[in-house]
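Please check this record.
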Amino acid sequence: MKIALIGLANSGKTTLFNAITGMTIETQTYPTVIEKPHIAVVKVPDERLYKIADIFKPKKTTPATIEYLDYIGLTKGDIEQNKKVFELIKNVDAVVYVIRLFEDDSIIHPFGEINPVSDLETIELELIFADLELVEKRLDRINLNIKQGKKINESEMNLMITLKEYLNNEISLKDISLDEKQLLEIRHLQFLSLKPYIIVLNISEKDLKSSKLSDYKNSIYNYLNKKNRRQIPIMTICCKLEMEISQLEQQDAMQFLQDLGIDKPASHKLIQECFNMMNLITFFTYAGDEVKAWAIKKGTPAIEAAGKIHSDIERGFIKVEVISFEDFIKDGNIHNLRAKGLIHLEGKNYIIKDGDIVHFRFNV
């Protein structure tokens, strides 16, 4: 899973990136143009994986991972500059909007004041303009094909005309009703305003429990409610503090969090929110002296889960042996569990459940 962090200049994107990846990328107090994006792969924390490994004693234990990307900040109206960001994020699975709430006179806000709703609107408008440009190019291609006498997809053309009308009126594609067939028809175009997203409010440490934070959050909730987006996750993170904690040794970091009354680091919380937003679950495999965690969409059938591991397993799928994590932990002995009938043999349409420990039988 790939997650991109986007936001306006000086919103604290790179600070958040450091906080959730443990990296030490230099943060700037002025807008900058960096040559390459920051990319880091982070392990998904899951205690179940290590409990399974404690019983199996494998040579290798491999968690699921998330890839985070961070690049330059968006600039209002700067089409060429923003294109660099959009080119990067078009292939990601989801986006984190980093919204600045912290006040610091030494770090200039692009608009000169803290206004989370204005910042959020600016981000969304830039995504809309990028999608509008994509729709116009697609329609130009369709019209050229018509002039050349080539066959066109009339359904796609009509849909593009409809989308253009909405985008011209500055309406995000996530705010219009598209059926499954239409979404499938435009999936290859990778529209940015359709990407699922999480909002991270970057607050200063002194304002973590202030009434000011409550007012800012309410303004965001009101904005989202007007667009019928009540399900959008909103996280409040002091990115600077979390970045400092991420640089500590694990034991010191956990003690520091405990002293602050924080149950989990931001990195863990953000991963959990990403999993929830993307409707992901985790299953586990044990094969060849390796215990491994895999992230898949909830409702995925066994044959598709097999393909997540290797196309040969999907192609030669025969059956899958399944045991729940709970049953496995209670006994831990495969022979006993098999004798008790707790290891099930399932077919290709079996829906993988969160925590399933599986072994695929296949032949190619």
Notes: The chain has 14 helices and twelve strands.
